[in-house]
Records
---
Amino acid sequence: MAEQPAFDVPELKPYPVIPKLVEDTMAHSQPFVAKSDFQEPLGFPGELVDDWQDVAIKKMGELTDRYRSLQVFLDSCVKCGACTDKCHYYLGTTDPKNMPVARQDLFRKVYRRYYTFAGKHMPWLVGAEDLTEEVLDDWYKYFHQCSQCRRCSVYCPYGIDTAEISMAAREVMDSIGKGQKYCNEIIGKVHTIGNNLGLPEPALLDTLEGLEEEIEEDTGVAVKFPLDQKGADILLVTPSADFFAEPHVDGLIGYAKVLHEAGLSWTLSSHASEAANFGMFIGSYENMRKVALRIREAALDLGVKRIVFGECGHAWRVAYSFLNTLAGPFDFLDPQYPVPQHICEVTHGLIQDGKLRLNKSENDDMVLTYHDSCNVARASRMGDIPGGQFEIPRAIIRASCNHFYDMPADTVREATYCCGGGGGLLTDDLIELRVKGALPRMEALQQVVEDHGVTHMAAICAICKSQFAKVLTYYGFQMDQIVSVHQLVSNAIILTGSEQEKEAELSEAA
Amino acid sequence: MPLEVNGKSYETDEEGYLANINEWEPGLADAMAEADGTSLGDNHWEVINFLREYYEEYQIAPAVRVLTKAIGKKLGKDKGNSKYLYELFPYGPAKQACKYAGLPKPTGCV
């Protein structure tokens, strides 16, 4: 049951419509500003500094020097308009500042004013503007209405990535003392406790013991969740939401069953009890690196040979794209395996090798579709073939379920829509934005519900799962219609020596 | 925004969570529930009391499966699931119940 919203939930239309622009519909939307307690531990000023304009402009120059891509993105836009209708937040809110080019221009116009010849001398000719309080206000609002999902960049003929501009803008704002509470509080918890939740080791241990009991009750098999086990082969790094929330935990149970059945030696770490890395969302290389180094430290301390990541979208982007330069070299790991590896790659490999027995009919109460998570789809890859990040999760679902249908082609794979809660926006103070931003995905879901009787949508990202569990209800769906991919594996897997194995043997004999 | 209960003022954060968990008293939970247009019965209190006990031991709210299992043991198996908890706390057991219990809001991708 959803609470009574204080805003109009968009209507699901039979086919997607590019809405008419309505200015400032989301001008009231902004997340809570971080207080000094959450700013200072991350190395940012506690509150807005007196000379914030000077500091911000200088920081902007540092960032364009440091990230060549950022400068190219700021210089190369030709205002062709290809991106304008590609953002889920624009489609859901109709606010023109949520068109990717307009969002970029909030940053670009200031860059032009201070860092281009024309902008310095003839600002009125080139749309260059001073960094005023009003502009900063717009930055804070609208760079927290971008989930850094990169859908717009797929359609941009120059490949301009709004996500990177959004990250840079947030980094500039952090550097002058205007950070976002949600992200910065969480990063602080990772630095001190090791995970986004602030789940300390004794609570983690207690939670894992409970899950072991649950699996044994269900299957009769003692599947373990080893914690801090030195000498294990695999370090599993997973989002802490997997320990805490539904349907995430059912995915975690799935990983454990797969690793158990395959006879793999593995462990979780209380030091690196988080796959997520919100340092990326706020564009802070230093914080991203500090978070990533915990994984390296845990891997060295435990003496593992492999690192495997659980179902977390942006964690996989950081892991796949940046981990080696952030926290490498990983020359101490077994070179026979990818560094790092995704749990879907592990499970898919085992299925292909015939090492897992899956009873698809265990999932016959569901008709599935699959939501490609933005960071997995557009910022990483899986396996050793192009597009593996699309094929491997689908192959796992098809191996675990009898009924699977894809959503419309322009809403999946590299064209996938963000869930509406990514990029550090999964917070209650942005609920209106989250609900409206989910509109394109909800319309696509509605279509397969009508056409194929789809009942459930699977995903491999903790943010997507929590976001959908929350926003599905606003659109007339149920919160439990979102499931983990490894939850499907968990339902279908026949563990050696389990009750399910005995049943299967009995029904075969009969 | 401070919360006034029985003539005493309590500091809360932006979202109405109690700033200092040690200041909590049962009247606060009732007042918060009233502000949300609901009232607390024995079953709500089972959850709130368990959250407080767990927090005292572990300095964190219990994971959803830890909570459902504990409630199932106390109130019967049919109530040991998140559906029942959402009936009690429609805004979500992790968030609404934590708020009433004076616990900080769970953070992260939850």
Note: The interface with chain A takes residues 14-15, 57-60, 62-66, 69, 82, 86, 90-91, 94-95, 106-110 of chain B (CB under 8 Å).
---
Amino acid sequence: MFYDTDPSKSSRTMLVEDGGGRLTYGEFERFYESVSGLLRPGTLMFLLCENSIGAVALYLTCLRRNVVPLLLERNLDRHLLAGLIGTYRPEYLAFPADMEERMCGRGGEGEHGPAEEAAPVASEETERFGYRIFRSEAAHDAAADGLNSELALLLTTSGSTGSPKLVRQSRRNIQSNAAAIAEYLELDETERPITTLPMNYTYGLSVINSHILAGATVLLTKHTLFEREFWDFFRKEGATSIAGVPYTYEMLNRLSFFGMDLPSLRTMTQAGGKLSPALHKKFAEYAQATGRRFIVMYGQTEATARMGYLPAKDALRKCGSMGIAIPGGRFRLMEDEKTEILEADTVGELVYEGENVTMGYAACRADLSKGDERGGILFTGDMAKRDAEGFYYITGRKKRFLKMFGKRVNMDEIEQMLKAGFGEIDVACTGKDDAMRIYAAGADEDFCERAAAWLSEKTGIHPRGIRVLPIEKIPKNEAGKTIYKDLPDDQ
Amino acid sequence: MTNLEKYNKIFRGMFRKTDEELPALKYRGIALWDSIGHMDLMGELEETFDIRIETQDVLDFTSYEKGKEVLRRYGVEI
């Protein structure tokens, strides 16, 4: 497993923090020795994550020690966290040291914290890297609900917050996906990826897993692309790759990234949603002109992380495609549950088969004892088509469509049309049958009128079915995906 | 409208703050002024003052006050 001991790596640097902290693979072994004895195997830990050495080292320790971590963002809403704790009754709660007052209920007047009733588990190593671990007093009761022995890791379903629904990932899932990613990205120990995504997000985590497997060095920062500190760290440590969601690439474009002097950069990967074809082309052309690689990828938390990738050599030729299945995986398109689509250029639901298809979901503690419910097959809920050469194109999501006066309309395509037609405007399409609503960030009345008229003309949808409304900003999660349920509810 | 009025109007509108609250605003200091907010802010300022803010200046624009210095480099006196 990628998190097991490998003496040949011990002198290599595993993690570097922008605050100056470093950890070699050999030093991680000492961290593990110090911390693992404090944790009982077969238990559950809630790990509030930030991109730091403490968080990554603790995560890897959990995997090796057979403690199942649920990775959560450190800023998760207090009430949501309390709800999750109530639902899953974790034996351990771990968080950055600067959250201790808040977590232990000593922050505000009369406010309770989730770790209030818990006992600290002391370790010099975790202290050194700024993490606190608390063991819940309720741990003894919870021990009755044993965890499935294959279960390695729990993640929230990306996009939805507030939902207690978790994805159950097995040891085989995370190992096979890390190995497939390292293979198709041709990772070796000289790689130095810089974090631009949170580690509790499946894509961010897959960068860490695949690079640890390769014996590489992961550069950890909490700064954003719009901060000078990020780029100073990038240059000082010679980052070789950057991983981004579509929004990351919009930010890079905004920053005139193409003119930046970044000699160490070799690879840019993109996942977490479909990049606009215009930006895909721009970055693919930049990569080709500067001898770099631009690799579009496709995945879901339900498939551990990655399912497809577009090889760098095809980035321009197949602009707009998410590529082919990763090593060891297979895609097919289904007309319905039983009928496979064999013809090219025909849209159907994308189905993936591979070792990285996760065990299933969990909604309560008892579900954590369940075994594999999917048998290696995932109906992705994404609609796709395949061209004659076998490259796949995502055309939308199964459920994001409206019937407009009898005609099926894909809301993701409406968004892409508006972005293509009006430039960089951020829009979110929602609504009900015969009443589509489009929110346009920062738009004025004049724009809304023009956009509605333009869209009606382009799609042939009757104008009374389309309303374009101004909104201050489109609600997004940390990965930049639109949170549709947070859009205004007015009709 | 003076340049200051235009500048303040953009900040008030984007970050839902009053004039009195503006001088304390910093990038990542409030939820609305995150990376997405920053990108939108740059776009609004460019449109309002008819300028194109360069990479280094996008990074230098770390607060409401610092932003005034940045705009001065483009001949926009606030």
Note: The longest helix of chain B spans residues 35-49.
